[in-house]
TrEMBL record:
Keywords: Hydrolase, Protease, Zymogen. Coiled coil: none annotated. It is an enzyme of class 3 (hydrolase). SUPFAM superfamilies: HybD-like (SSF53163). HAMAP family: Germination_prot. The gene is gpr. It comes from Alkaliphilus metalliredigens (strain QYMF). One of its GO terms (biological process) is spore germination. It catalyses: Endopeptidase action with P4 Glu or Asp, P1 preferably Glu > Asp, P1' hydrophobic and P2' Ala. This is Germination protease.
């Protein structure tokens, strides 16, 4: 029918489990949870797993916390530390590491402005290393950052811009920050995904561009993203599911009908809803009304996590000094 729009490997795995009632062959999953954050690591280990999931081989780490939508200072600090820990484990083990941080997205469209706003808070140091002709430092590494905009505002393919920068500055790793799409409202602005496979800008909203990955750029690419939107079909599907559950508990005469609806697979219900909406051009992308404040908080959390992960001398007590 229709392909469910999601950038989250965790959700692709859930769809497979709902249909097959088993784990995906060639995929290993483990979870770690504390009081505030659930960390799920999905390791796509071979080609079979990659083909089933439609994802490249590599590690996909998801941090889930409903409190992200209205995070207080302590929770933001905690999630930044968890993010930093997961990022550090994925960075190349190399002396005098050099990193390029890329903020993808359109800074004029709030749900898509996560990347640019996060990059604005990155502690960049490459110019200092060049100015003082330093090769290494005990407290920081050589970091550069760029927010290249989108093709609609620059006329240039984002991947080509980044490739040119990588060829000139020669980083050892590229960290890409972007807004994503989810298949569940409960994960919008409440989930951070980290992956070692790079990213295809716009894929979650059906506007896939040139991939930013190790194959295209020649260096390892770590992607960090947050789902900030769902499509209208997903929102409608979630709402209908809640209505079905409520009515099936209360209605006696119609219980068989509601039970039948409940047994429909998620993808089948989603496809039916999209089929109804498509002729009216109503399958739009939806985001919460508080998105301005949410993006500011999320960009701070992600920037803090990246700063702590990249720079050996920066920890939680220092990190907020570099936000401007």
């Amino acid at each position: 029918m229709f392909q469910v729009r999601t950038d989250l490997a965790l959700e692709v795995r859930e769809l497979y489990q709902e249909e097959k009632q088993q784990e995906i062959p060639g995929v290993k999953v483990d979870q770690e949870e504390d009081t505030d954050v659930l960390v799920t690591r999905v390791d796509v280990m071979d080609q079979q797993g990659a083909e089933i999931m439609g994802k490249k081989q590599g590690m996909y780490i998801t941090l889930e916390s409903p409190g992200l939508r209205k995070a207080d200072a302590d929770l933001k600090d905690h999630i930044s530390q968890v993010l930093a820990k997961e990022l550090k484990a994925l960075l190349p083990e190399r002396k005098n590491l050099k990193a390029l941080v890329v903020g993808l997205g359109n800074w004029n469209v709030t749900p898509d402005a996560l990347g640019p706003k996060a990059v604005a808070k990155i502690h960049v140091t490459r110019h200092l290393f060049k100015m003082y002709q330093k090769e290494s430092d005990d407290h920081m590494i050589e970091v550069s950052a760029i927010s290249p905009g989108v093709m609609g505002t620059t006329g240039l393919e984002t991947g080509e811009i980044i490739k040119g920068i990588v060829e000139h500055s020669r980083p050892d790793v590229v960290v890409v920050v972007d807004a994503l799409a989810s298949r569940k409202m409960e994960r919008v602005n409440a989930t951070i995904q980290i992956s070692t496979t790079g990213i295809s800008p716009g894929s979650g909203v059906g506007n896939k561009r040139m991939a930013l990955d190790e194959e295209s750029l020649g260096v390892p690419v770590i992607a960090v993203g947050v789902p900030t939107v769902v499509d209208a079909a997903t929102l409608t599907n979630d709402t209908i599911q809640l209505v079905i559950k409520a009515f099936s508990k209360q209605a006696q005469a119609g219980s068989e009908f509601y039970s039948m609806l409940e047994k429909l697979k998620e993808e089948e219900k989603y496809g039916l809803i999209r089929e109804v909406l498509e002729p009216y051009n109503a399958n739009v992308m939806v985001t919460p009304k508080e998105i301005d404040d949410i993006i500011l908080d999320l960009s701070q959390i992600i920037a803090n996590g990246i700063n702590i992960a990249l720079h050996p001398g920066i920890d939680l007590k220092d990190v907020n000094r570099y936000i401007h």
